[in-house]
Amino acid sequence: MTLTMLAVFLVHVLLGLPLFVSLLATAVVGFLFVDPAMIPRMMPQQFFGGINVFSLMAIPLFILAGNLMNASGLTDRLMGLARLLVGHLRGGMGHVNVVSSVFFAGVNGSAVADTSALGSLLVPSMRKAGYSTAFAAGLTAGSSLIGPIIPPSIFMILYASLTNTSVGDLFLAGVVPGLILGVAFMAMNAWYAWRQGMATSGRWPQASELGLAAFAALPALVAPVIIVAGIVMGFVTPTESGALTALYVALCGVALGQLRLTDFWDAIVTTTRLTAAIFLIMAAAATISWLLSYAQVPERFVELLAPYVSQPVVILLLLSAITFVTGMFMEEVSALMLLTPIFSPVAMMAGIDPVHLGIIITLNITIALITPPMGACVFVAAAVSRLEITALFRTIWPFVLMAVLVLLLLIAFPGLTLWLPSVLG
């Protein structure tokens, strides 16, 4: 049954049908194997039930906050601060790219939004600084992976809704891995700049300049504090945190005179379209996930990996390999929705902390965003840099490798993810 469903899904994707239609067609085939009489009753129930989760309402609110942040000019202020902090170093514009992604990650939580918003501004600047278009686009796509790791994270909210894991603990657990990713990509950029013989700007920023830039960016820097502190301290739920953040960013935009009514409306329209696409995919994937659970596929998967449950690192490596390959050919939200219910019982049996598992799965799914042939961030980076997609596919692999090395580091040392939640959770 599982292989037939996979074949049906691949055929529909290759035919170019919308992803949620491909998933629903796959679900119909699965129900035909299990019990055709369940189709009119269980499919609608699971389709709508899969998105009838209160915490999922945080997703459109955080997306809206990110769109309002761009419209309010706060993104430009963050990049201005990043330029002063690291722009004077060798390969400064590349470092600005990565640091801007770290800042931007604290509000949006979407790698694709990061690639689009920052790439259109930073890739031309990197070209002028002597970077090749391919490296500039690759670094933009690679550093965007920080977005779903540093809180807030759309993927973490989805994982939490599927496993009843604390969103606050997941958000805290993503901070250190996100910063490690940033350092890793800055190291890649420093190596490239040294190899290309790029010079430093020779001018370090003055304290007054840094102070003014930090003050200008302060409204944007406060937003992540509102998100994480409010959830961790129990003042607000993730959904309420998303609403507060969107309201806060909108008020900042109005106060700064940057957010007009037309900008606000455009942000709402963009958010609505993206949310509708995400929720349709989630609902269809939830239908398949329920069907696989009904057919006891997770139990069979547990039996298959039972000989390795005494070796948590081996389990995580196997789960990562499966997720990595799946993510190469499947949209990330649907991959997360389908794989998490199957992987979670195995991880519990192996004694793996659910928060640690959430970060590992999130990073795996995120890496798929820059992995050919389906990596969404690669296509966005190619579009904003006006580079042939095949050329970027050839040059993206070092960035994939660097992200995989960070993943292996997190698997080997769980304390890197669990330390902050244990201290502040």
Topology:
Blueprint (H helix, E strand, L loop, with lengths): L1 H13 L4 H16 L4 H11 L8 H14 L2 H13 L5 H14 L5 H18 L4 H11 L10 H10 L3 H29 L11 H26 L5 H18 L5 H34 L2 H9 L6 H18 L2 H18 L4 H14 L8 H10 L3 H7 L1 H16 L2 H10 L1
Give a description of the structure.
It is found in: Cell inner membrane. Pfam families: DctM. Keywords: Cell inner membrane, Cell membrane, Membrane, Transmembrane, Transmembrane helix, Transport. With about 425 residues, the protein is mostly helical. It has one domain. The chain contains 21 helices and no strands. The radius of gyration is 21 Å and the shape is globular. The model has no long low-confidence stretch (mean pLDDT about 85).
What are the defining features of this structure?
single chain, 425 residues, mainly alpha, DctM, TRAP_DctM
